[in-house]
Amino acid sequence: MKRNLQKILILVLAGTVSVEMAAQKSKDTLKEKKIEEVVVTALGIKRQDKSLGYVAETVGSETFEETQNNNWVQAMEGKVAGLKIQTAGAGPLGSARITLRGEKSMFMDNNYALIVVDGIPLSDGPRVNSGTGTPAYGAGSGGDLPIDLGNGLNSINPDDIESVTVLKGASAAALYGSRAANGALMITTKSGKSKNGKMQVSFNSSASFDSVLKWPDYQYEYGQGTLAKNKDGQFYYSYGQSADGVSTGGTSSAFGPKFDGQYYFQYDPTVQGQSPTRQLWRPYKDNVKGFWEVGSTYSNSVSLEQANDRTSFRTSLTYLDNEWMMPNTGFNRFNFAGSLSHKLNDRLKISTKLAYSRMKSDNLPATGYNNQSISYFMIFQNPNVDLAWYRPIWKNGQEQLDQIHPFSSFIDNPYLIAYEMLNGVDKRTISGSMMVDYNFNNHFSMMLRSGIEVLNEERTTKRPWSSANYLKGFYREQFITNQEYNSDVLFNYKNSFGSFDVSASVGGSMRYNQYIMNDYRAEGLKIAGDYTLTNAISLITKVPKPYDEQVNSAYALITFDWNNKIFVDVTGRNDWSSTLPAENRSFFYPSVSTSFILSDLFNIKSSGLSYWKLRGSWAKVGIDGSPYQLEKYYDLDDIPGGVTPPSVFPNPNLRPEINTNIEAGMDLGLFGNRLNYSFTLYQNNTADQIIRVPMMYETGYAHRWINAGEIRNRGVEMSLDYTPVKTQNFRWKLGANWSLNENEIMSLPDEFGGEPYTMATVAGVVYFNAVVGGSLGDLYGFKLLRTPDGQVIYGDNGLPARPANVEKVGNAFAKWRAGFQNEFSYKNISLSFSFDGQYGGMAYSQTHHKMSEQGKLGHTLVGRDNPNGTIVGLGVVQNADGSFSPNTKPVNLTSYYGDYYRRANVETNTFDTSFIKLRDARIAYSLPKSVIQPLKVNELTLAIFGKNLWIWTEFPMFDPEVATLDNSTITPGVEIGQLPSSRTIGFQLNVKF
Hints:
Blueprint (H helix, E strand, L loop, with lengths): L1 H13 L23 E3 L5 E3 L7 E5 H6 L16 E5 L8 E5 L13 E4 L2 E2 L39 E7 L2 H4 L10 E6 L10 E13 L12 E2 L27 E2 L7 E2 L2 E2 L4 E2 L4 E2 L14 E13 L3 E13 L6 E14 L4 E16 L10 H7 L33 H6 L3 E17 L4 E24 L2 E28 L2 E26 L10 E7 L5 E15 L3 E12 L8 E12 H4 L7 E15 L11 E2 L6 E2 L3 E2 L7 E14 L4 E13 L2 E5 L8 E5 L2 E17 L3 E18 L9 E6 L3 E5 L7 E4 L11 E2 L12 E5 L4 E11 L2 E11 L2 E4 H8 L16 E3 L3 E3 L5 E3 L3 E3 H8 L9 E3 L2 E12 L2 H4 L6 E15 L9 E4 L2 E4 L1 E2 L6 E11 L1
Parallel strand pairs: 6-9, 11-12, 32-36, 42-48, 46-56
Antiparallel strand pairs: 1-2, 3-8, 4-5, 6-7, 8-9, 10-17, 10-57, 13-16, 14-15, 17-18, 18-19, 19-20, 20-21, 21-22, 22-23, 23-24, 24-25, 24-26, 26-27, 27-28, 28-29, 29-33, 30-31, 33-34, 34-37, 35-36, 37-38, 38-44, 39-40, 40-41, 41-43, 44-45, 45-52, 46-51, 47-50, 48-49, 52-53, 53-57, 54-55
């Protein structure tokens, strides 16, 4: 008896004792793992989790319903080990770059995970989501800017999602072919359910409010100027030439006088010029932050569903209205979804699903470092300039003709950017599928499925007269059509032979995709403010070139099950791709996976050990190329009837890339599966990559396509779910995950002769260089010259000495990532919150460079009180004999900060992106049954939720989860004109009748 009491005491202290009594059901975001749980795998095949030889993590509908996001996929951040969701910080739509287990391709756009909705692949990604054709860094170029116009994920209504299963490795997604080589997200949308055959009506309403999460450390102690002195030898300021001296008001730098109660001739908005008398020299501390408003998002969704033994249906309507934090920006979205499933008889079942989405915006913000972006204005805004001075937008009597931008013609008025430089979009998406299931008998069945996705998108771009890059205005219309058709058939067989169960599937599929863009540009407007193509001074029309692709496939899967204890899967797939030459068009790839339920095999279950599974898998996946890389195709020129030759020499002998994946791991359940632990090791090798290599210009081409190079990813993933306390009225559940990925470049083309291969460059100063032994994401650029003990070396001019060659500065990707979730429930009250973060990773900041160069950040106050506005850089100079001595050469502050933080000095403008975020939190109250049943209500829940509520980081700019939208490519590790990220507080009402 004494020993039993000791055991009970130990279990109580361990937090694993529960009192199982009747209690009111509550929603749980963190699900207790069940070993018999059914998950959706490749081709929509449903399998028991215990039978899988690879990791397939499922995120339930509550994650997306309970914390509303403009792009629902962001709700998964930090919830799944190995999953990284990267946005560009470019506006309210939050287009996401989704990767699993690191980078596998030398081209960033080829690392996306596949998105599958109800078994039909979504034609998402860079091929479809084309940008404006402009880079992130383009100041003074006369061009336009990148705009986050959303991607296919934006069209999916989060309230319609039943679950998302994450297939991480090539083994898990082998049956989906080349597009799933980087893993897949399997989205299952809701179908009809009901209790006792009665119709159920659900209503979900939410209102949320956004404010800026984090600001740079602006300085408001010194104003505009360049250390100019008046005749008395004192620092001064003058807007235009005045009695005090020559004009100092044309600079963008903030190295002017300290704010100390003095008076100067300044800009006067009443006369739109120099003030008649001297005005108080003072800072306007809200002159950047005051431009940003509290954003809002309102969402209302209603659904009807019903089901019986033969028929089920569901339909839903949702409307979302967003006004973003930047004035006059935002979007609205309407969603309709319907599903119907009917058993005609015991053998035949027909299921259909249809979804329609319309996303519309009169204005989405532009991003990047260019005259027309609000990011550019924030960088150039000076501490002594009142934001209200810009508010009239137009000069007196010059409406639509000449804007107010009193300090530089290169800096556009922020309200002109918000209210006149409009980037409109009207995007309509229709997707649908029909599936027929037929059972021939108890052993044979067939599934026939066909799906269609049609996107029609209209874009408009308006630029008024007097804008920095378009003095006579600009207008653009783009019309995009993308159509994808997927059809597949699958024959299934299952039988038992004693202790063995065998199931096999054989099938084939056909996928066809067509993309068309029509582009019309009015370069200059005859009449200001008339945004029509007929008003063009010069009309440029680009007739679309063909961009289509077809892949035919055949595949097979066979599964062996011995006593529900040992499972073996073998798959094979053959693709025929139109993007490869005839002799290489057909390529085959296999996979094999296995799992052992050790707790059943050796009968070692106990009160402590509930479940123990070992698993392993090996797979190869072939990856075809992009369309039109085999032959020479001319591009249409801006001049009507003209063409331009291609700059990349085609390769008629391209082969498919080969992705080889191996993984092993175990799943462990303890204390009645109250504690579940998962551990995975993996290695992924991608060889024969399709890459561009330089050619001699004498050939008439800049590059050519070849097969070469190999990338290896190795990693570890761990996840934990635990229910420490579970009593009649109180429950505490927690989850955690941790992942590490190490990427190594194993080989490069012989053409480089051991020299680095520059895969991409941003802003002309940050290079993504590949070297054997290095990693994808390695950032290269100029650094400071240093002594062997790390001291900065200065030249004779008192400025940092400059190196001759670029060097590795860091890597864009984190060393490891982690997430932690908690959920508490007490009677009808629930509280949940989650943290996630990363360690390591670096990012270059163009904003930091420019604001440091101009003296607008707090760290540039160092040396401001020195005599004559000079500073001596901390470091050494090299003597003639090679020795070093302390640097003693004073230089003026503008020269020092301008040189030390110059744009090309990647080292001084690159920072650690480690962070911890309170990603989301929610407190909810469900009214008791006794209160709501007289109202004929089944459930009624009120909740308050928050997103990105708190952050810790040493990254000095807006957000350490930084990336750049460069045309349509989301490029991690570089910040070029990032927009602020938001902190969100919201309220929610859920009702079920």
